[in-house]
């Protein structure tokens, strides 16, 4: 055990030498000085374990004044040495709170006992300070309000979150009565609060209850209070943990409102469904009629008016089904890329250390008109879902793009208006979702989590906000692979612009090149084949990789156009690698619901082109032209 270091402050040389010999005999390490100034300098330099201070030392400072100037944070114990015991001197000395006195002359035994008692007391005080500091650090770190109330009903300790909750500055509540925080309305007065404390003391069990509280500015709010009676040292106190229920009660109100709207939605759902079926027949037949009678201008006008009226009816039906998602919005012009840079920093804390988050911004940018807080909340919801889908860690990618959704896309998604959109893609490498889950993923209260892990409102809120902002939400997921959510928000018209100009996109037509389409979804395969044939390609089709390899062996083609995720033992990447090894000149275009950022590593290995779903005909044309190294020479009408 290391010997204690003692600083001797004594201006009489013979006394100092005698003390040094005694202390060295007792096994202490010794430093000695003769003045107050030297003592302060030595204390700051070497931080001794104890100071033996002669009260009457020569110089501008006596021993008592020297001790008074020792920095309080050093917490160094002091024993005074004196040949005088007059009360005035001792009173001055007591004011500096020394750890002992030795009246000259004293024996070696007295010296040793006094030093040991002082060091032991200093150790106990140090441990107590450490314990108090630890306690205060823990209390300060807790996000809930922590209150200690003594037997008289006064606050002895309040952490910073507790003070802020009630609108007070830190420390402002110490010594005040609990009446300051009670509403004063029966049964939420000081009397009932005191009774709760007494019940906790009598039972020895925690008491938990909701309480009507009053903030400093007079605002009343509900709080959840967990109260327990405890003994801290010699003091009996009530320890209270207080949580503000304002947000929770607001959510409960929203849930009750949502449940009411759900009941109304069920009432209108059947009517709207049948009405939509009728409109579908009307709109479909009007479309066929307009295609067959393009040479009849008058009939074209009449059918056009009827079609517009039917589409207006469809809009009314959609409004009836969507009205329960109304919420007050404060739209503002937002630069998406800037918002994401700041939001990603916050999301990193939500995701934790096991999940790597990265941001990849597209080159074509635009502003949107949306509620900034709601958009940030939507991204947080998606990040939280991504985190829950990756319990063992993983990667999350957030990317941006600018997309034009054309009439074909709008026809397949009746709630989308054609135009320019800013797209935010949120991709995770988590567990993915089954087709059954995807069917219900945006429904209110639908959740696959445990009862205490979520309400099932997160994605519904994202869906409702984006819809109300004039946007669109899509989701693509594969079990064991991951999930991508895309938020489409209309690009805001540039300042000073009076209208939005729709531009014609150029596309490169084929010249009879042979293309093999590999897609396990029959509707998607039919659409792709029709688009490619319209573009001038000769098309064959396959359902999976095995069929594709058989067709390639029978009749080689110039381009393999294949989905990435397919059933069977071989996916699109495997098919591309196998096919290009056997036919090195074969060009490959992959299509996937995941963005390019999600598949970048695999793409670099396979050296193929990627077309992200959903795609326009012009996008398909451009991808095949790039694969074949064809220059766009003909514009689509």
Query: How much is the average pLDDT?
Result: 78
Strand content is 15-25%
The share of residues in helices is: 40-55%
Give the biggest beta sheet: 5 strands, parallel
Distance between the terminal alpha carbons, to the nearest Å? 93 Å
Describe the structure.
The N and C termini lie far apart (93 Å). Mean pLDDT is 78; it is low at 318-328, 495-505 and 631-637. The strands form 5 sheets. Strands 2-1-3-4-5 form a 5-stranded parallel beta sheet, with helices on both faces. Strands 7-6-10-9-8 form a 5-stranded antiparallel beta sheet. It has a 5-stranded mixed beta sheet with strand order 12-14-15-17-16. The chain is built from 19 helices and 22 strands. Helix 8 (246-292) runs antiparallel to helix 9 and helix 11 (372-388) packs antiparallel against helix 14. The protein folds into 5 domains: 5-137, 3-Layer(aba) Sandwich (Rossmann fold); 142-244, Beta-Lactamase, CATH 3.30.450; 249-323; 331-490, Histidine kinase-like ATPase, C-terminal domain (Heat Shock Protein 90, 2-Layer Sandwich); 514-628, Response regulator (Rossmann fold, 3-Layer(aba) Sandwich), CATH 3.40.50. Helix 17 links the parallel strand 20 (559-563) and strand 21 (587-592). By secondary structure, the protein is of the alpha/beta class.
Topology (SSEs and partners):
Blueprint: E1 5-9, H1 13-25, E2 29-33, H2 36-46, E3 50-54, H3 63-68, E4 78-82, H4 87-95, E5 100-103, H5 108-141, E6 145-149, E7 155-158, H6 160-165, H7 190-203, E8 207-214, E9 220-232, E10 235-244, H8 246-292, H9 297-322, E11 331-335, H10 336-351, E12 355-360, E13 367-371, H11 372-388, E14 394-405, H12 407-412, E15 419-428, H13 435-440, H14 458-468, E16 472-478, E17 482-490, E18 514-518, H15 522-534, E19 538-542, H16 545-554, E20 559-563, H17 572-582, E21 587-592, H18 596-606, E22 609-612, H19 617-628
Parallel strand pairs: 1-2, 1-3, 3-4, 4-5, 12-14, 18-19, 18-20, 20-21, 21-22
Antiparallel strand pairs: 6-7, 6-10, 8-9, 9-10, 11-13, 14-15, 15-17, 16-17
